[in-house]
Amino acid sequence: MTGRVIVITSGKGGVGKTTTSANIGTALAKDGYKVVLIDTDLGLRNLDLLLGLENRIVYTIVDVIEERCKLKQALVKDKKNPNLSLLAAAQTRDKTAVNAEQLREICDTLKEENDFVLVDCPAGIEQGFQNAVAGASEAIVVTTPEMSAIRDADRIIGLLESKEEIKSYKLLLNRVRPSLIKSNEMMSVDDVVEILSCPLIGIIPEDTGIITSTNKGEPIVNDENALAGKAYRNVALRILGEEVPFLDLDEPKGFMAKIKNAFAKLKAKV
Amino acid sequence: MEKGFVENGFIIDLSSAMNTTQLVFELSSIMEHPDVKGKRVCLKLGSTDLKQSQLLSIKALIDSMDASIALIDTSSEQTKASAESLGIVVSEISANATPTIVGKAEESIKEEPVEVKEEDKTIEVVADMKIPTAPVETAEGVEDVYEEESTQELSEIIPAEHFDNDFESLAANEGLLKAEETSKYILLDTGDVLPQGVEENSANTETLPTLYLNQTLRSGQTVNYDGNILIIGDAHPGSEIVASGDITVWGILGGIAHAGSQGNVTAKVRALKLNAIQLRIAGLYARRNDTLNVPYVQKTNEFTPEEAQIEDGKIVIYKKLRRD
Predict the structure, then answer these.
(1) Higher pLDDT, B229 or B115
(2) DSSP for residue B90
(3) What count of Cα atoms within 13 Å lies in the side-chain half-sphere of residue A220?
(4) Residue A243: its pLDDT value, please?
(5) Which residues of B touch A76 (CB under 8 A)?
(6) Do B220 and A56 touch (CB under 8 A)?
(7) Residue B313 backbone dihedrals phi, psi, to 5 degrees
(8) Which residue is closest to A217 within chain B, CA to CA?
(9) What is the predicted ipTM?
């Protein structure tokens, strides 16, 4: 079996790389695929927190590279889904503890026994980024509809294009707020796609549930009712090659919903 | 202030502490008591040598509990010098006063209301290292009595025989309470985690040197020391403390703590608040239970000192329960 290695990157920090990694990984594992998540953000690891696995980490990627343990020992199994495991970053080291060649080796080993290897990339375009993309053949570029995030995403896409190993890259637009797009205060999805001229793989609406899910260590895809969770499940399906229409993020229709909306707008004005 | 008298305060006898770690841990369990608030504290330090920085931290900690150091009694020249440089009064605390009351439980106070309420004008708290169970207690109304008569000699105020009998039974009944083994930490199945060539041993950690740190350990910071580690401050989640001996944190322990890293199975981890994401002692690794609900912000008045050690191949946590 040769799995797919996908790097999740963005350039800018805080746009949702780690949240995206955790959710897509969980969604794919729920669909029955074997998934390994690799956190490459050495010294500022968060992926373990989002998955609620912080207390189970004994060995990290640096231990694997420095041969203090076997790769298998360092994989932390998810609490709920045995298909999902995490290779955690070292919190007490920095990016220089790992190089691109070593990461490529780890990715190559892992993809032999897994369907998907998702690499959570750190912010920036320095060594951390170079390491993370080294073993990947596909990329998901996460951005938000803000000029700064788009500028950084553009830079990242340029760098990805210059890498021979990266065969394809897709755009994931995060934290979209339909109400702001409607009132022309936020760039629309079409605008972003046009600026970056990059195929879209998903649109994730802004969802306050993300905050609670992050704090609880429980990815939002596990919440059947959350809109963001549904959007992430759709992204997973698109990765698997299914054609899924993008979610209709427009404001809810129906009489009660309209009244609710009107009140919300009134409140906002006051 | 005359020799041997304490207005509105305590004498804390730490002279039996064998090293700084023990001293600080005992003091912490005493200072943790709410009745200490606003009191003046006299420290009997015995022959323990304290550097200026160490004494300063002890002073800062006592200050942080809204108490203050009235004077210290020490036989160590170094401690004396440290105290003088910090402007702390060094004096003998009533040389002929025998250390008497040792942590009185409220229950036993009720049983003997006469002795305690009418005669007990000053309370001396002795942290006896041989019986690490001594809880801290004060009798109600002590404060008022002090103000009325604060010039009596200690030895006259507390007749030693009133409390001698209590002490043994108290130690037996009010011993360190074992926290429920299963609830807080769960052993990880890690296989062989001790590095090659390292064997389990049970060397005495008291003879090891102690690294003294007066700082907050933040995420990503590690301390690794061949000996005991004493941290005055919090160890935040994401930090890592590795010691071949004991680890003592006077604060909230939230990161990873590995005591006895060279295989010492008698090593202990203690903290005012034991919330370590992982506890490791020698070759045993335990993770914090997922169901444990750790609040985002820890309230400083909710400390109950805890101590983790290996027992029957498990990591067991002992808790000093407060009786309020």
Answers:
(1) B229
(2) B
(3) 26
(4) 93
(5) none
(6) no
(7) 70, 15
(8) B290
(9) 0.79
